[in-house]
Design goal:
A 5-stranded parallel β-sheet has the order 2-1-3-4-5. A 5-stranded antiparallel β-sheet has the order 10-9-8-12-11, sandwiched between helices. Helix content is about 30%, strand content about 30%. It is an alpha/beta fold and about 240 residues long. The chain is globular and about 60 Å long. The chain folds into 2 domains: about 130 residues, Response regulator (Rossmann fold, 3-Layer(aba) Sandwich), CATH 3.40.50.2300; about 100 residues, OB fold (Dihydrolipoamide Acetyltransferase, E2P) (Beta Barrel), CATH 2.40.50.1020.
């Protein structure tokens, strides 16, 4: 497996240190995984975006607060070009966590906790790369089908049927939403309502009565679940689960 990594921070000293630490962590990955990597560094978000036309990255370590093109602006453009890129925001501004959710960050790493949080983040990246090749086996129209878990946006329970919504297809199956919740919770799925299970990677925002996905679809949010949903989004952003 070959992984392309971009690191972007306007502080040259911090950038050099971050690239070095990321490189060391990837070098220490279990050799049995046969992982190769390439790291490119940028001090400017505009330069990173200019290079994106020539090099599509799998992983992006991105400083939120930068002049010219902020990390938020860069993430917005990057997501349009590559919906699967794993973005890790690097900052000391914890108040920006929810503002950045719409760009589906893989992690939110604090600069003053880099030594503690970066190793966990890299381990999480490696684990995620393998998880993305996982499939949900379902019975659809009398035949067995494997649905790639990363492609599932949300799941809806309607009467006695379960509807699974992906990028291009909708699958109707016979199952139980609680059973699916137990199966998919480890992959970042959150129960927002008694009848809905949502993939956290596609959450754009959390409103009073609904969760808005990045494609504009609105999923019902039970009032008593609101705090739990927000809490889980924070946990997934940190790479932890309860």
């Amino acid at each position: 497996m070959f992984v392309r990594i971009a690191v972007c921070d306007d502080d040259s000293v911090f950038l050099e240190m971050l690239v070095k630490q990321v490189s060391q962590l990837f070098q220490n990955v279990d050799s049995s995984l046969e992982l190769e990597y390439q790291i490119d560094s940028f001090q400017d978000g505009a330069n990173l975006l200019g290079n994106w036309d020539h090099e599509v990255y799998d992983i992006l370590f991105l400083d939120i607060e930068m002049p010219r093109a902020s990390g938020i602006q860069v993430a917005d453009k990057v997501r349009m070009k590559n919906p699967y890129v794993k973005i890790l925001f690097i900052t000391n501004r914890e108040d920006l966590v929810f503002h950045s959710i719409q760009y589906r960050p893989f992690r939110f790493i604090r600069k003053n906790h880099l030594e503690d949080e970066l190793p966990e983040a890299v381990n999480g990246l490696i684990e995620s790369l393998h998880k993305e090749n996982k499939y949900l086996k379902v019975s659809f129209n009398g035949t067995e089908k494997n649905i790639k878990i990363i492609d599932i946006h949300y799941i809806e329970s309607c009467k006695h049927d379960i509807y699974i919504y992906t990028f291009h297809d909708t699958f109707r199956i016979k199952s139980n939403l609680t059973k699916l919740e137990n199966q998919l919770e480890a992959y970042g799925f959150i129960r927002t309502h008694s009848g809905y299970l949502v993939n956290s990677r596609y959450v754009f925002s959390v409103e009073k009565t609904q969760v808005v996905l990045n494609d504009g679809r609105e999923i019902p949010l039970s009032r008593y679940r609101t705090e739990k949903v927000k809490h889980k989004l924070q946990l997934y952003g940190r790479g932890t689960e309860e």
